[in-house]
Every structure is written in structure tokens, then in C-alpha cells.
Amino acid sequence: MSEINETKYVEVPGPGKIPERDMGKGPVLEASHLGIDFGGLTAVDEFNIALGATEIGGLIGPNGAGKTTVFNLLTKVYQPTRGVILLDGKDTHGMNTTQVNQAGIARTFQNIRLFDKLTVEDNVKIGLHNSIGYHTPAGVFRLPNYWKEEKKAHNKALELLDIFGMADMAGVKASSLPYGAQRRLEIVRALATNPKLLLLDEPAAGMNPSETEELMNNIRKIRDTFGIAVLLIEHDMNLVMGICENIIVLNFGKIIAKGTPSEIQTNPKVIEAYLGSQATEGEGK
Description:
By secondary structure, this protein is α/β, with parallel strands linked by helices. 37% of the residues lie in helices and 25% in strands.
């Protein structure tokens, strides 16, 4: 298993702890008593999190635990039945997915969602929509401001791609990229929206060990280069324990454990959720 990553944490008012280095900035994300019901079924209940401004956090749990549902709540794909979500101290109540993205949350998905027939550069440009400075008439009639903003978008897209070693692929169709490069492109497109928080939903899915190692390095690079927080859902425990500073474990829609990687690895409730009660009983024999 990868070397365990440990960070010094401090208490903050509200739903948790954040890294000591982020104390001057406060949490970028706070969710309190968050939950959602679908008819008579409670999918997520009493979900609480505080995420520091440059923290790399993990959300893990068995299949069907409610992890992606939490991401859908944070990004307003689903409107919460109850609870409060604060982004950089601002209440996101009433926001839709577009408004949440403009406010500073970007995400990727379990299944890659690229515009396959567009080039790599054009996929990134789509992510730059929050910073485009021309209106529809300027685009339709190709006014000077359109060309100015297009040049700016071109340069920014290449700059982002270069950070991840993809600038030479700018003119390639997204569908022609190998799997790992498609994953990177989806992350670059999310970063193009200039987020404060990046949500990664199973970013290592389908990757081989070398691609996973490269992903870990890229996640660290994202945090250090852009100075943003990252929250990821992942089943690859080598990646989670090697990259995440604090981890939340969900089971049946409820938090069963929070802590550093070493605390999570030795938590009996976590072991039982993943391995079953017979495993914990056997350890005591």
C-alpha cells in the first residue's frame, strides 16, 4: 500500500476539522446535516463536512453507500431535502448546477463525459465559458472583441494542457485519446472553469498502476499549482491512502467514520463495512 499521508488538523466552528495551514482562509466547503429522500427512501442523511481551502479529502464506502449522491447534492444535480451547503462561506441554497459551477465547484464523473467529436483544445475552451468576455452578437458577427477573447481562450487552453503534458494533443479529437489521457482532459476541462473546489468521481477507474501513480502526482500538482481543494470518491485504496489528508467513510447513506488515513485503516466500523462482520469477529479470536 502507498505511504500514508498525514496532515496536522485543527478544529473549526461547524462540522469538522481543516488542515492547520488553511486556518487563515477558513473552510472552502461546509455541509451541515445534509440529506436527501427519494420518496420514502433516505439516500443520504446527516452528512457533515468541512474542507480546507487547499485540502485533499476522500469520500469512500462500499458500492451504493451514497457517495455519488453526495456529489450530486454538492453540485445541485439534486436539491437537498435538508441541510446547508456553504461554499467559501456563501449559502448555495436555491442555486442550480450552473450557478454552483460559477460560484466555484467543478467536477468530473464516473463515466467520462467529453465532447468526443471536438478537439482536445475545444473541450478545454468549453470549460472556459465562465471567463468568456464577449456576447452572442460579437460571436455571430465576428466582431473584434470576439477575436480578442478567442485568442485569450486559445492561450489559456494551451497553458492548462501544458501543465499536464497535453499541449501537443490540442488538435487531436477527444475520441482518439487513450483512456488515461481522456481522464486527464476531463480534469483539465473542469479546471478551466476556475474552481475553488474540484470534485473527482472515481478518477482512477479503469487505470493501470502506472496511470494511477501519474494521477496521484497530478492531483498534488493541481492542489499546489492552483491552490484549490480537491474532494475525491475512489475505490483504489492505494490512491486514497497515498493522496488524501482526511477521509470520510459512508455506509448506507450515513457517515460511519472520519479521520486521517491511519485512523481509517484501523477503524473497526470501516473494516466491517468493507469486509463484513465475520472479518472483525475473526480478528478477535
